[in-house]
Amino acid sequence: MNILALDTSMGVCGAAVLLASGDAQRTVLCEESMARGHAEALMPMVAEAVAGAGIGFAEIDLIAATLGPGTFTGVRIAIAAARGFALVTKAKLWGTDSLTVMARAALTSGATPGGKPFVVAVDARGEMLYGGLYDGEGRKLDGPRLIGADEAVALPPDDLAIAVGSGAVHLAEAAHRHGRQVDAICPDLQPSAASLAELALEANETLTILRPLYLRPPDAKPQLSMAVARR
Predict the structure, then answer these.
(1) Strand pairing partners for 3?
(2) pTM here?
(3) pLDDT, tens digit, for every residue of 138-182?
(4) Which region, left, alpha or beta, applies to residue 166 given φ > 0 means left and ψ of -120 to 50 means alpha?
């Protein structure tokens, strides 16, 4: 199984190729932290990852993308690229939410305590978080949700002790106000194309189409007062 994984949902642009044959696996990852410019950076990364894996595009079996939540434009870039590549190569498609990919990345890095649930919390601005609850193996228990920090504190189990991501500090502060102890770690955690590829391999399934997962409306809104009447 040869998997191409694409992520442009948040503050990293990344492409990974995972080669799996029996028990042997090898991953080639190209990624870079960036606030913008994902559309321009993604294709060269894809080319580099595929070349580094030593395969051709026709040998890709599955193409995976993060579906959101994330930035409005960023989420669409990876999805559009995945759908385009699949159309040309006839590869199958798969995707999952960005927080689940982050949960896998946190586990892989060894940041989270083994066997205990943890929260992935991403700052969604306006005193809101993108939040997801995971068990000690990274399996999703709840989410992703758009939720306030104080509301989020009431949801996790009593043995929750760790929150990861850019919104973890907000969640930890809210927990303290409610008499709970939650440690905020890995504030720079981002989705990883390598983690996405691993999840795609384990899922052993495909999707007919990839659709963006938006939990809040875009910040940009039509200027209705400036609209020209249609004739």
Answers:
(1) 18, 62
(2) 0.92
(3) 999 999 999 999 998 888 788 888 999 999 999 999 999 999 999
(4) alpha
Q: How far is CA 66 from CA 86, 101, 115, 125, 172, in A?
A: 15, 8, 25, 20, 26
DSSP 115-173: TS-EEEEEE-STTEEEEEEE-TTS-EEEEEEEEEHHHHHTSS-TT--EEESTTHHHHHH
Q: What angle do CA 142, 145, 150 make, to 5 degrees?
A: 95
| DSSP strands (E only) in the chain | 2-7, 12-21, 24-33, 62-66, 92-96, 118-123, 128-134, 140-148, 162-164, 183-185
Q: Locate tokens 């991953």: which residue?
A: 27
The tokens describing 68, both together, are: 């959101």
CB atoms within 10 A of CB 77: 22
